[in-house]
Amino acid sequence: MTYVIHTRAELAEATRAAGPRAVVMTMGALHDGHRQLMREARRRGGLVIVTIFVNPLQFGPHEDFDKYPRTLEADVEACRAEGVDVVFAPARDEVYPGGAPSITMNAGPLGEILEGASRPGHFAGMLTVVQKLLMLTRADVAFFGEKDFQQLALIRRLAHDLELGVEIVGVPTVREPDGLALSSRNRFLSPGERQSALALSRALREGATHAEATAVLSAAGKILADEPGVQVDYLELTGADLGPAPQEGPARLLIAARVGTTRLIDNVPLTLGKAA
Length: 276
Description:
By secondary structure, this protein is an alpha/beta fold. It has two domains: 169 residues, HUPs (Rossmann fold, 3-Layer(aba) Sandwich); 84 residues, 2-Layer Sandwich (Pantoate--beta-alanine Ligase, Chain: A,domain 2), CATH 3.30.1300. 35% of the residues lie in helices and 22% in strands. The protein has a six-stranded parallel sheet with strand order 1-4-3-2-5-6, with helices on both faces. It has a three-stranded antiparallel sheet with strand order 7-8-9. Helix 6 crosses helix 7 and helix 8 packs antiparallel against helix 9. The longest helix is centred in the C-terminal third of the chain and has 17 residues. It is globular. The relative contact order is 0.13.
């Protein structure tokens, strides 16, 4: 049975039983990527909690907070289908009693590059709500998707640097059969824009077939340049931890681009210094 709750008091009551707890944090509008996180949490065992909260702190003044899809009824059904024990869907005042917090998390240098450079304040808001939800759920393990790779890296750093005692598990990106990374924002794409958006995953796949940094970026960049419907924000090759790309070893190729009015991100792992 899945319990749907909305308050801190209800959450404390629903999670009172002893035992390991796994949490999957979402902003709702759930898709198969979220459901894969739930499956991984369910496989781990223990109490599985899904949080559904559209966090205002991580949206900039010109971003899509008001139009972000809110589909709680369908989301709850998805959670039930995946055997989730508790759905915590709080109102804003329940998460931020008294209004926006006066103290928030500092994302540090890692939060100032890539998405942080394009969306100032985004990661401070994201880390603040993650910290609050980890404390409220008292989770032992939390599952996050690799599609938001910088977010995952920052949450891992948060858990490590503040010694939270929570295991952070990254789950590979789930894609449509044609390669498009699943995202709640995909629903805003028109049919034509969706076709243009496929250039992101094509560019990543092509880039990952190369073993030298210049060739990786050149191959991926050409595919993006050939698609007029895609406006690239960044195309970056980094180390596996988002530091400088190594000459040899694990690396990450990351893209952010706008297709129509919708901003999409994607990334793939690759290995430099040897034939792919």
